[in-house]
Design a protein that fits this description.
Blueprint (H helix, E strand, L loop, with lengths): L1 E7 L9 E5 L5 E8 L4 H18 L6 H23 L9 E2 L1 E7 L2 E7 L3 E6 L2 E4 L6 H7 L5 H5 L22 E4 L4 E5 L1 H4 L4 H10 L2 H14 L6 E7 L6
Antiparallel strand pairs: 1-11, 2-3, 3-4, 3-5, 5-6, 6-9, 7-8, 7-10, 10-11
Helix pairs in contact: 1-2, 6-7
Length: about 240
Amino acid sequence: MKIVSKTNVGKVREKNEDYYHVSENLPLFILADGMGGHLAGETASATAVKTIVHEFESKNIKEAADVKTLIEESIELANKVVFDLANSVEKYKGMGTTLSIAYIFEKQFIYANVGDSRIYELDKEGIRKLTRDDTYVNYLLDIGEITEEEARVHPNKNVLTLALGTEKKLKVNIQSRDIEGKKFLLCSDGLTNMVKEEDIYKLLMENELEDAGNMLMEKALDNGGVDNITFILIDTSRCES
């Protein structure tokens, strides 16, 4: 398995509120894009990721069901930790974060998502977005108020309807995919708002993973880099049985 991860503050923001983790000991991948006032966004994303990592490192995983339970319980705990911090420290009031998490167990890519960071699956058949953005624009799409074309340029397309740490309780949908012959991408919207899906696919399928990562970051910056840019690339083609 090959892994490439990168983060960049971008060309507009003064600080990087994205936070990610690629484990040295576990096939665990987490990416968070924080939101809030001064220091709050970066505090939310880092707190959530570190809380989840600690939970995974302290538990024994024997089967896929253990992974799913641990993802659910660790997200619930991270949500509580961020929520409590936001409500006990004035400067962190209202903070929250997106969260994309994945764990590879045997031949399964097990994942969950909160907010508008995304997880993609890529193979020779194409690129597929495995997650659905928790945004106001998607709500408008669901009720038929706007079209797909209108959604792409909507002024409120980044307004979240769900984020970790903003509500006392948080439930997530945990799913899984077969990994054979596939690549996966976890990314913040700083990448997807700057680089089209078809361009992401072409770069990842036509280049070595490290080169593709460099090109993706360069393209996101060249196209404006208006937000923090963070992504994790995973090539599972070398995973053993």
